[in-house]
Amino acid sequence: MGKKHKQLEMCLKEELKVPNVSLFNNGAIALLTALKALDLPLGSEVITTPFTFAATPHCISWNNLKPVFCDIEPETMTIDAKRIRKLITPNTSAILPVHVYGFPCDVVTIEEIAKEYSLRVVYDGAHVFSTEINGRSIGTFGDITMFSFHATKLFNTAEGGCLTYNDNRLVDKIYNLRNFGIRNEDQVAEDR
Question: In angstroms, how far is CA 122 from the centroid of its own chain?
């Protein structure tokens, strides 16, 4: 959380054109924290894709949530947004789409569905660093987007990751979750 850490967060805000960035040691921990920060009901369902790295469904399960798999589009290999509605039940709380190999998901349709059903959206953006859709940063869609900085990704720091999000109310919550509630040498936050 030192000077270089804050400097990298500021540079990432500029590069990704997002209001908030929180750095992590890797993308999986960032994704795990993103789901936790949204306070999804325990045991609820999160619609995601089976065409992803194992960490994506693991992060859902590790949050005591249930992954529900939606098929992919054959050309982009991203979640088939047209199939999401059929998978929604009264127990669905969120959608976790994965942008694949530089191809973004159908964010417009996913946003419409999320609004219609009051669902949260967390994007796995490990493959789309700096991507924009009609001039809008990919990191501003949904509630939270996770970026991985693993050595195999477009932007890498050998390991690492971050979350981007628009809602300023998440800044403290994500900070506390990321740092065990430790605010300084004398204060540990109760809400982690």
Answer: 4
Place of tokens 């690492």: 160
CA 159 to chain CA mean position, Å: 17
With residue 124 as reference, give the H or E element that holds it.
strand 120-124
User: Per residue in 86-113, pLDDT tens?
Assistant: 999 999 999 999 999 989 999 999 999 9
State the residue for tokens 């999401």: 84
Tokens of 62: 């590790």
3-state class of 33 per DSSP?
helix
Considering only residues 91 and 161, tell me which one the structure prediction assigns the higher pLDDT. Answer: 91
Sequence-distant (6+) residues with CB within 8 A of 106 are 73, 78, 81
Q: Against a cut of 0.85, is the pTM above it? A: yes
Amino acid at 188: V
